Amino acid sequence: MFEAIVSLCLLSDPAVCRDVLIPGYESISVAECDAQLRANPPDLKLFLNEEPHGMAACAPVGDTLRFQQAARGVFVHRGAISDANPENEGDVANVAFVIGKSAVAVIDSGGSRRVSEQIYRAVRSETGLPVRYVVLTHMHPDHVLGASLFAQAGAEIVGHSGLARGLSDRSDAYMNRFQDLIGAAGFIGTQVVMPDIGVEKMLDLDLGDRVLHLRSWPNGHSINDLTVGDPTSGILFTGDLMFHEYTPALDGSVLGWQTVLTELQALPYHTIMPGHGGPILDWPDSAGPLNAYLALLISDTRSAIVRGDSLGDAVRVIGQSQAADWDLFDQFNPRNATVAFTELEWE
After folding, report:
1. Are 276 and 246 in contact, with CB atoms under 8 Å apart?
2. Alpha-carbon distances, residue 193 vs 69, 122, 158 (angstroms)
3. Mapped to the 3 state alphabet, what secondary structure does 203-238 carry?
4. Looking at 292, 316, 342, which one is the last position of a domain?
5. Chain centroid, CA 164 distance in Å
6. Phi, psi (rounded to 5 degrees) for 28
7. Which CATH number is 269's domain given?
8. Bond from prior residue into 248 cis (ω within 30 degrees of 0)
9. What pLDDT, in 10s, does the model give residues 107-117?
10. What are the boundaries of the signal sequence (predicted)?
């Protein structure tokens, strides 16, 4: 198999370049790929952040992300239990795709364009149907920074009605942080794209004899969490409203997240894909550790406030009894404690 690529180079350092996938030109032979490029040349202006070096060309298909089949037509990938770095290139969040009879939906898009290229190739290895939708479960960069490739392939980007505002407010910070973590070379081609469709409450996406149920949630893990339910398989894609192994990251309301998690457990699904860990867990049994962690955050924070602890002192003790139960605990728990303390000191 062959695909179209173009070499992109940093505007700030033209010696740093990367071959970037141009979606839509996949072919069984280089001659067929070349013929498609001649008949329908790509608009290289779509790659706004870097300078194209030379023309688009055909090359053998590159690396593909590894997915496992969780159910008929459902494929899931487990991101690394790690922060983004040059080795994983931003592949630290779980990703899935669901195949219907007429179209495909991708759920979250990875933390860089390079990761999304590997997702795209994995989809193409399973089906030639169009990727009609990319559903972003919330605004955090490890879940959204690969979406531009699918937008360029013609997919509609779908998210919570508050996603556009969240991305507008934080996109520069997310881009700068992930470029620093991954490295400039690996980050080439990465862009933030805004959603085409905002979900106020609920929305169904029809993939052809397979309908996905999308639901937006109030302030919890973040201010724009969205879940995707697939009644055909019984799988609920929770995004970061559920964590497994990886320390939960609180960027919204600890009380709100506890309430949302209770509601999630009542939904009619027997299996979930969390935002991290898993990638497939029994539901609602697997909610226990996160329930316990959120309850601990709340109780420890309230105790610190009653004692009159300063924020600095409180952060050193809140949640610490679960330090051995979660990976990356020292990286995320101090921020969680800060957010919880800031919320609860005024209740």
Report:
1. yes
2. 28, 22, 11
3. EEEECCCCEEEEEECCCCCCCCCEEEEECCCCEEEE
4. 292
5. 15
6. -80, -15
7. 3.60.15.10
8. no
9. 999 999 999 99
10. none
User: Residues 84, 142: contact at Cβ < 8 Å?
Assistant: yes
Q: What angle do CA 38, 146, 330 make, to 5 degrees?
A: 155
For 84, counting Cβ atoms within 10 Å of its Cβ (0-12 exposed, 13-18 middle, 19+ buried), the class is: buried
User: Is 228 inside any structural domain?
Assistant: yes
Relative to beta strand 68-71, strand 74-77 is antiparallel
Q: Which residue has the tokens 């397979």?
A: 210
Q: How far is CA 263 from the centre of its chain?
A: 22
Cβ-based neighbour number of residue 298 at 10 Å: 18
If you search the block for the tokens 């202006």, which residue do you land on?
45
340 phi and psi angles, rounded to 5 deg: -65, -45
Which class for 255: exposed (0-12), middle (13-18), buried (19 or more C-beta within 10 A)? middle
Burial of 169 by CB count in 10 Å (0-12 exposed, 13-18 middle, 19+ buried)? Answer: exposed
Helix (H, G, I), strand (E, B) or coil at 318: coil
Average pLDDT, the chain: 96
- The answer to whether residue 320 sits within a structural domain is no
What's residue 347's pLDDT? Answer: 85
Measured distance CA(2)–CA(249) in Å, rounded: 40
pLDDT given at position 48:
67
Its domain, for residue 51, covers 2-60
* pTM for this entry: 0.96
Tally of CB atoms within 10 A around 170: 16
Task: Please report, in angstroms and rounded to a whole number, the separation of the first and last CA atoms in the chain.
Answer: 60
User: What's phi and psi for 65, nearest 5 deg?
Assistant: -75, 145
Place of tokens 């303390």: 341
CB of 336 closer than 8 Å to CB of 294: no
